[in-house]
Amino acid sequence: MALCLDGLGVALATPFNDDFSIDYKALEALIDYQLDNGADFLVVLGTTGETVTLTDSERHELARFVADRVKARVPLILGMSGNSTSHLIETIMATDFSGYDGILSVVPFYNKPSQEGMRLHFEAVAKCSPLPVILYNVPGRTGANLDAATTLRLAADFPGKIVAIKEASGRMGQIREILEKKPGDFVVLSGDDALTLPLMAMGAKGVISVIGNALPAEFGRVVQLCQEGKFVEASKLDRPLQPFYRALFAEGNPSGIKALLAIKGMARDILRLPLTPVSETTRRHLSDALVRLSQYAEAYAN
After folding, report:
1. From the candidates 136, 182, 245, 258, which is the catalytic residue?
2. Cα 12 vs. chain centroid, distance in angstroms?
3. For 109, which DSSP code?
4. Residue 166 appears among annotated catalytic residues
5. In the chain, what are the domain boundaries?
6. pLDDT per residue over 204-235, tens digit each?
7. Residue 193's closest CA among 113, 135, 249, 252?
8. Tell me: the pLDDT tens digits for 84-108?
9. Which listed residue (25, 127, 161, 166) is catalytic?
10. pTM of the model
11. Is CATH 3.20.20.70 what the domain over 7-228 is classified as, yes or no?
């Protein structure tokens, strides 16, 4: 059966204890919160999960924990990335993917490969992965942009294997070209919460979200309305979320979402270096946005 990636995907944060160990009690509650509030699929070991600060054994343990907790209730995507193709292939081949339905793999970072280098990298990933592959383009982090032509060639060359792209380039013309020329079953997902509505209006199927960690029902409703083609109504519900989009990324992800989760009492505001908590100014903006969102929800309900 084809992997369904429509709707709200949430890139799970990784809660930590005061001693910087993984807080599995908070993680369990966070997973249940997503499932209870309508998340359509979950992404594990992505950027928001602070994956680069986890050890190999922690990544394995966390991946198994999430799979055991979700129990196939929604599709699960596992982050599998690296800037050494051979090392990434070795890692993929040694990974236990039981309970998972696909992998998310980011453009190789730091070494800034050419388009041909990126194409050959993802070709190697697709050939060795036992699961469908979602490309992840986020040049603001990786230093390299996966062009529309390269994305489209990978989608055409590996039908049913390279099945989607999480687009976080912010390059609307590039994303439009992918949407207009892609194979019919290739899925485009927003990688930017703030651009989800306009991208879905252009034809994207959904989002892999950060804000969904803390506000899955609220943001999920926006996504659902977009799926139904009700973009005017979606825009009304998206408007009070705009302050969150700005504040969550003002000092980097996942610092912003960790602060919001702490404000809501869902996880401690603890990150592993070199990541640090947000400033008091940003924290106040997030707190104020929550108050205004509550007021807006009451007014909208009436």
Report:
1. 136
2. 8
3. P
4. yes
5. 7-228
6. 999 999 999 999 999 999 999 999 999 999 99
7. 249
8. 999 999 999 999 999 999 999 999 9
9. 166
10. 0.96
11. yes
